[in-house]
Amino acid sequence: MNFTGHGNKLIEERIIDFNDAKKLVMKLKKIPISSRVARECIDLAYGFFSPLHGFMNAKTLVSVCQEMKLLNGTLWPIPILLDMDKAIIDKNNLKIGEQVILSYQGQPLALLDIEEIYQYDKLKIAQEVLGTSEEQHPGVRMLKQWSDYFIAGPIHLLNQPRFQPPFDRFWYTPLQLRKIFAEKGWERVVAHQTRNVPHTGHEWLMKGAWFSTNGDLPVEKLKTGVLVSCIIGPKRVGDYIDEAILLGQQKLHDAKYFRNDIHMVSFVLWDMRYAGPKEALLHAIIRTNLGCTHHMFGRDHAGVGSYYDPYDAHRVFDKIPKGSLNIKPVRILEWWYCPVCGEVTYSGLCGHTKEKQPFSGSMIRSMIQDKVKPTKLIMRPEVFNSVMENADKYGFGSPFCTEEYLNRRQPVFELS
Ligand SMILES: [Zn+2]
To answer: Which residues contact 354 (CB under 8 A, 6 or more apart)?
Structure first.
């Protein structure tokens, strides 16, 4: 496993003792934050974003946007920002040097030391980070919804989130994961990032990555694990519900398509920016902090529409300065079903290219929507059954997000 986090820094947690936190909450101003900022406070405090300790100041923002690095030279591709309405800043008379409580859904979450309050053109951020300022890009839409002012400063968590079932089973902080990897004796860990219920194409992606990660090791040293690292963030109508994704991935484990000692499922709180190659780098940084040594990147990783070439996220790892990342990319092309071989096959492997039957996400989705069990060559029956169960249990009858789910779903975590 990776012993240090990104930038060769040890992972630190920034969490305030319960009694001290209570005293601070009594005397400091409480400032409401969005759900994205709440998720990023949690990420910062547990070290998912190590070596960052807080939200970026203007100088760091410019450096990240223009040079893809922090002020000390550490690689960093996407700004981590706390946006704030001018009205809230004025109403609370927020000042540099002041400590305030960031509150989420009426509960205190984090302590912020205000280091700077500034403005920066959001469309410039979009252009520099996403390569476009077009409204069709979801990352641009997200930036446009942000407030116009930014507050910089280090944060500490005052209140640790309580994850609700089934999320609680899959929530691991970087320090917890590192401990588990050490207990399992995993010398190498390959991360698989996903927002999907797994079909067999995904399963083979992971299996292929496991082979690649192990390829140079003698049999005695095959201590390699696959960490499924699901992204949990905002949802849109038509996305798979979070519960079906996590529990569907876990089925591959429970039904032993992966041996139990080489595979585990977890998640990261993150609001996708769809920044293609730059987002691939950020995902690599987060998984370095989790202790992973390798990270899979498939076709069009974190891309959207035709903004990035499907393999830009592969090429970016050759463009960054040597030694700026402490994790190896495992670059994966495509798996599909070959009816001549009667098996799943890989880009450039068998010669039956005319007969190629790609895994079609939309076809599998429409089968699931119609409750038609796909053949086991496409989706494992245990996974399909789990998706159906969880549609009833968590999705108001649908495995895909509906308006009803978005309005009435149980929260991922609560604060007390
Ligand atoms: Zn074939």
So the answer is: none
Distance (Å, whole) CA 134 – CA 151: 26
| Whole-number Å distance between alpha carbons of 394 and 231 | 18
Tokens read off for 287:
């998984």
Q: From ligand 1's centre to the CA of 325, what distance in Å?
A: 37
Task: Say if residues 402 and 239 touch (Cβ distance below 8 Å).
Answer: no
Question: Residue 101's beta-bridge partner residues?
Answer: 30, 111
Percent of residues, the chain, with pLDDT higher than 90: 87
Alpha-carbon span 270 to 235, nearest angstrom: 11
Q: How far apart are CA 397 and CA 144, in angstroms?
A: 34
In angstroms, what is the span from residue 336 Cα to ligand 1's centroid? Answer: 9
354 CA to centre of ligand 1 in angstroms = 9
Q: Measured between alpha carbons, how far is 119 from 57 in angstroms, rounded to an integer? A: 10
Angle at 236 between CA 83 and CA 283, to 5 degrees: 60
Q: Is 388 exposed, middle or buried (0-12, 13-18, 19+ CB in 10 A)?
A: middle
Largest CA distance in the chain: 71
According to the model, what pLDDT value does residue 357 have?
Answer: 87
Q: What is the mean pLDDT of the chain?
A: 95
What pLDDT, on the 0 to 100 scale, is given for residue 335? 87
Instruction: Answer for the pair 61, 150: CB distance below 8 angstroms, yes or no.
Output: yes
Instruction: Write the CA distances from 367 to 85, 192, 195, integer angstroms.
Output: 44, 25, 18
The reported pLDDT for the residue numbered 133 is 96
Alpha helices for 226-353 (secondary structure H): 242-254, 277-289, 312-319
pTM for the full model?
0.96
Neighbouring residues of 283: CB distance < 8 A, sequence distance ≥ 6: 191, 193, 295, 301, 302
Look at residue 132 and tell me whether its pLDDT is greater than 90.
yes
Cβ contact 284:313 at 8 Å? no
Burial of 245: CB neighbours in 10 Å, binned 0-12, 13-18, 19+: buried
Ligand 1 centre and the CA of 339: distance in Å? 7
